[in-house]
Amino acid sequence: MEISHRPFVLLLLSLCLFLQTSLSIDNFHQAFPIVEPDPNHTKLRLSREGLEAISRITTPIAAVAVIGPYRSGKSFLLNQLLSLSCYEGFGVGHMRDTKTKGIWVWGTPLELEIDGVKTSIIYLDTEGFESVGKSNVYDDRIFALATVMSSVLIYNLPETIREADISRLSFAVELAEEFYGRVKGQDVAFEPSKLLWLIQRDFLQGKSVKEMVDEALRHVPNEDGNKNIDQVNQIRDSLAIMGDNSTAFSLPQPHLMRTKLCDLKDEDLDSTYVERRDQLKKLVASILRPKIVQGKALNGKEFISFLEQILDALNKGEIPSTGSLVEVFNKDIVERCVKQYHERMVNLRLPMPEEHLQSAHETAHDEALKAFDAQHFGRQHAKKSVDQLDEQMQEVFKNFVLANEYQSSKLCEALYTKCEDDMDHLQSLRLPSMAKFNAGFMYCNQSFEHQCVGPSKQNYEQRLTKMMGKARSMFIKEYNNRLFNWLVAFALVMVIVGRFIIKFILLEMAAWILFIFLETYTRMFWTAESLYYNPVWHFIVGTWETVVYSPVLDLDRWAIPIVCIIALFVLYWRCYGKRKHGSSWLLPMYNSQKNGRNRERSE
Questions:
Q1: Cα–Cα dist 40/134, whole Å
Q2: How do residues 403-427 score in pLDDT, each as one tens digit?
Q3: Global confidence as pTM
Q4: How far is CA 96 from CA 72, 87, 199, 219, in A?
């Protein structure tokens, strides 16, 4: 029987808990947590009670958030704006620890008509920063979340404006802008809230709070280029997004006995404070506008959906704290992007033309910047990190430029040396040939043109042109003289071959004619120089070039093998050819008289 009752008991307990929760939520005239810290105070989470209080709002929402140091009277200020006592409104703590945890919302919105539109005004109380037991990252998330959620952001500061206050606000604005961009897209402009600098101080003489704020946000002169002052001015630049959306207001202390403020009525408070408080209410009401996201006013459910997206991005995103520079946080990202750039560039095959290297650099540079844009934190502060990334990539690129110059010089030097050796070889041909020299000359030019690349090409091209010009002039100068001597020697050799070896009378006669023409006739009728311009000489040169060199046969290389083959053929013919085929020739040969003298006379 006990086992059968257990489901029924569990159902009753669940129903009791549900009824108890429902009864507590039905009373919305109280403060509810909307964003709570996790146990470690490092991340934030949404609270169901606060979400339910906001989700029931069907009209456009305008949120008023108060931020500032802990124990600075934020909760008391909100109660004063809501015309509530400490016992009715937000909880006020008198101890040294902070009372408000996370972000709280007043459950009953005020109704106000703004520009003819009925608008629900919600008030947000935030956990004060700089309290013990919390990380800077947690404070920054609270600050940034309030900046994104609010239509009017009241920056509650005691006495004066410190540099740390400006730095923290600057960082919160940039944090909000960054994660707003991550949620809505980097191309969607961040729509900042109205910023109200509220300075609570006892002295009202001297500078106005507006003058105090303007002076605090004014650029610090930095003629010497001091890096610390540059950083201070950079913080002020990041607040430029607030533009004309900021104003300032001063509020005196309500009473000297601050621990008893919750027990005091308006008539017990300082009259100047009461007057300024009422002016503050009117000022807040005058600058209030519905919360706009991408041009659309948000109702309760839409406000919660937007809040969930921003909170999820804040919790997931790795962010720095105001205690450390954004540039330091971005340092690892910069190093990764530089490494990505280097890996892309190191795959290039050097040397290469300068324009190709520049194009590869620009492509790798753009990819690295895109990677940085996708990972970096901040928009204003990150400009310095972008400059550092660009500077480091330029340094890496300079190394590749130097490596390209070295490899180009090495390659072009090798090609130049090879062409120089080839030209020297062509100068010492056994059988001088202008056609072969021109072919080698063209081959050197083409191989150098196609293989020599990079920045050294132009310099080596000039050297090559000069060297090959000299080689060509020298070859032409020696060509005619060497060819003349070769032809004279060739004619004498052919005379001997035709007379004593093959005994071919026509060959001998042709050789004698060539020899006489070269040695006698030309000397009698032409000078040595004029011979080279004579058409007969051109015909001889053309015939020589045709025989000595062609794409099919290079006689300079094969002259000795060919001569050896011909000599063997002639030797074979003289020794064995006559026995088999007799001594008859188709062409006239010298006749031997030896056999004729010894022949016996017949009777």
A1: 8
A2: 999 999 999 999 999 998 988 888 8
A3: 0.53
A4: 11, 19, 21, 36
